[in-house]
């Protein structure tokens, strides 16, 4: 569940060359703070059925900003942003048969970021908290023979608004064969339904292509 943010750069970051330097460490920079509140429930009404649901509220304080000095000579790091995040996380698992298990999960997330008085980092709230509003996954695990397992997973990830990154659905699969207790051979495929753009805006996004890999794991 996306409940954390990347750590703020709290040390000086200097650009080589002659002054004026573009970036300066702010002497007032402190660690970012998150106050996390959670309420959840987990149950197992049947021997083969289990589920869980959790709601959460996060208060973020002292979030890192980049402030332009009055002389517009350099940028100073500061902590003039705050934010909130509210969401829910649910998952469940059901043993359909001794050799077949189905599991599913989803998250819903709403985040808001705002500047404190005195900040001129207008881009800060738009670049912080870049997480999709919802994600979901459905997974099937089937052991069709002793030591042999087939896993198929479908992932759904919501879109981002700024920059505009479309949502996507991806299909992954894995066929595993445990040769002995210390060795496993597997054939895995990711994004089997085609390439998808996962990072960056549409016009310049980084695409994750369909991929297939063979892996041998040997414990020593």
Automatic annotation (TrEMBL):
Membrane disposition: Multi-pass membrane protein
User: Does Membrane count among this protein's keywords?
Assistant: yes
Q: Where in the cell is it found?
A: Cell outer membrane
For this record, the Gene Ontology CC terms, alphabetical, are:
cell outer membrane
Q: Which SUPFAM superfamilies match?
A: Porins (SSF56935)
Q: Where is the TonB-dependent receptor-like beta-barrel domain?
A: 30-192
User: Key word Membrane present in the record?
Assistant: yes
Sequence segments annotated as region (Disordered)? 114-135
What's the domain of life for this entry? Answer: Bacteria
Q: Which Pfam families match?
A: TonB_dep_Rec_b-barrel
GO MF terms here are:
siderophore uptake transmembrane transporter activity
Where the protein is mainly located, per its record?
membrane
Give UniProt keywords alphabetically: Cell outer membrane, Ion transport, Iron, Iron transport, Membrane, Receptor, Signal, TonB box, Transmembrane, Transmembrane beta strand, Transport
Name of the protein in its database record? TonB-dependent receptor
Give the species: Massilia cavernae
